[in-house]
Amino acid sequence: MDLIEVLLIILSVVIFMEVISMLLRKALKVEKVKTGFRYYKINELHGKVSWGLRILNLVSFIIIFFYFSNTPNPQFYILIGIIVGLSIIEIVVNAFFEWKHSSTPRRAIVSMGEAFIILIAVAVVIQFDLLNPVINS
């Protein structure tokens, strides 16, 4: 497996996630939140919690990066799990604020669906050892 195959796997996961998200939005009659790379907050508390999580994610990523760069035989799946775990926490916090404080609480179901798809994708990559040939080459 080379880099092209890994990129195809990532692309297929992203496409699958977008299709499922679109189907959930249509079924629940929820409009897409157009955030792109812009900052998205529901209220001031959500903004503060979200920024706190982003800073925690950044600090954690820097610590993990330096730890793994100095480890002789790093376990990259642990690194991937930690990064995805921190991202899932951020999605769950967004879903909580969408559920409790938003005018469209059904949007939280779409957010949790996206988090679930990310978890399944990571589980498939780890279970079938899809990155091992790329990491060991």
From TrEMBL:
InterPro entries in the record: DUF4181
Pfam families assigned to the protein according to its UniProt record, in alphabetical order: DUF4181
Keyword field: Membrane, Transmembrane, Transmembrane helix
Top-level taxonomic group: Bacteria
Segments traversing the membrane: 6-28, 49-69, 75-97, 109-128
Protein name as it appears in the record: DUF4181 domain-containing protein
Organism encoding this protein: Alkalibacillus silvisoli
Lineage, uppermost ranks: Bacteria, Bacillati, Bacillota, Bacilli, Bacillales
